[in-house]
Design brief:
Elements: H1 16-29, H2 54-68, H3 79-89, H4 93-109, H5 116-129, E1 134-140, E2 145-151, H6 157-161, H7 166-179, H8 184-189, E3 191-196, H9 205-220, E4 227-233, H10 238-246, H11 252-255, E5 258-262, H12 269-272, H13 277-301
Parallel strand pairs: 2-3, 3-4, 4-5
Antiparallel strand pairs: 1-2
Helix pairs in contact: 2-3, 2-4, 3-4, 5-7, 5-13, 7-9, 7-13
Protein name: CRAL-TRIO domain-containing protein
InterPro entries: CRAL-TRIO_dom_sf (IPR036865)
Organism: Seminavis robusta
Length: about 300
């Protein structure tokens, strides 16, 4: 039904040096797997995507021992989340511990329950409040990565900053990252994010900067997620300044994934908001909830 699927998503040719850097970074962070199958051949529901390498398993056990021994961490992470911390932070127990405490704070602040019903309520409300902003969510079969496409030109940060909406908007953001991480291979390979920036209203920049700082400190900078590519289309020049500022705040491997000035002949909504904004919103919601169902089932069954 959709004219463009995730593997055919519009992506201009990358600079060769940048591409080599990305490949080297991915290779450095990706442990070897015992499986003889090419992981890129695995579909989104293949059980092989839940495998951990022996090294990752060792890291996870060490992190679990430290977390369970800390009485101040009342909201103990599941074994799934501990393994996710190990994949992202490797054997850095101190960083994993800090992340676990920040996760505890975020879950408490935005009343995140990690249940299907809570995810449904928060995502549904978030997609309604930011109508048309979430254009696409799906699985890129060619790269075995999840892809999310957003329209910042439609985004109004004042909606999220309204105290009445914060639980849904920031909590919905948490579940969006959860949906990108339904299994360990998704965490390991990282997500692809595309953003349409044409039509961005710079007059709201002060509120937007406040929102960006809060979103990073409470959600994006807390959630253990790898970003493989973050491509921003039709960006105004001022975004270069924003990136320069953010460079001091975000990890280097995420900063390197951000590409500004990507071009396409027309706005991305012509590809994704089809046949209507409402149809696209429903697709995003259904696909995210499907991923979250797999995530929550794995949370219940997986043990280190």
């Amino acid at each position: 039904m959709e004219a463009v699927e995730a593997q055919a998503v519009v992506e201009p040719e990358e600079d060769a040096s940048h591409q080599e850097e990305q490949e080297e970074e991915a290779q450095r962070r990706q442990p070897q797997h015992a499986s003889h199958r090419s992981i890129s051949a695995l579909g989104p529901t293949d059980e092989g995507r839940m495998n951990l390498s022996a090294e990752e398993h060792e890291w996870a056990l060490a992190i679990k021992e430290a977390l369970m021994a800390n009485p101040e961490l009342e909201d103990k992470p599941s074994d799934f989340m501990i393994a996710q911390l190990a994949i992202v932070h490797h054997n850095d127990i101190e960083t994993a511990m800090e992340t676990a405490f920040r996760i505890q704070e975020t879950r408490e602040q935005y009343k995140i329950r990690d249940t299907y019903q809570d995810a449904y309520e928060k995502l549904t409300r978030s997609l309604e409040l930011h109508y048309g902003t979430h254009m696409y969510f799906g699985f890129n079969h060619e790269e075995a990565r999840y892809v999310a496409v957003f329209d910042i030109g439609r985004f109004d940060s004042r909606v999220s900053m309204n105290p009445r909406n914060a639980e849904y908007c920031f909590g919905g953001g948490w579940y969006c990252y959860h949906a990108m991480s339904p299994d360990f291979e998704s965490v390991r390979r990282g997500a692809i994010i595309l953003m349409e920036c044409q039509g961005y209203d710079w007059s709201q920049r002060q509120v937007d900067l406040q929102y960006a700082q809060r979103h990073w400190s409470d959600v994006a900078g807390v959630y253990p997620l790898m970003i493989h590519r973050f491509k921003c289309f039709h960006t105004p020049t001022v975004f270069n300044i924003v990136k320069a500022v953010c460079k001091r705040l975000i990890p280097s491997h995420i900063e390197r994934s951000v590409q500004l000035g990507c071009q396409y002949n027309g706005r991305l909504d012509a590809l994704y908001l089809v046949p209507s904004v409402e149809a696209a919103r429903q697709r995003v919601l259904v696909r995210m909830l499907e991923c979250l169902q797999r995530r929550f089932a794995a949370e219940q069954s997986f043990r280190l």
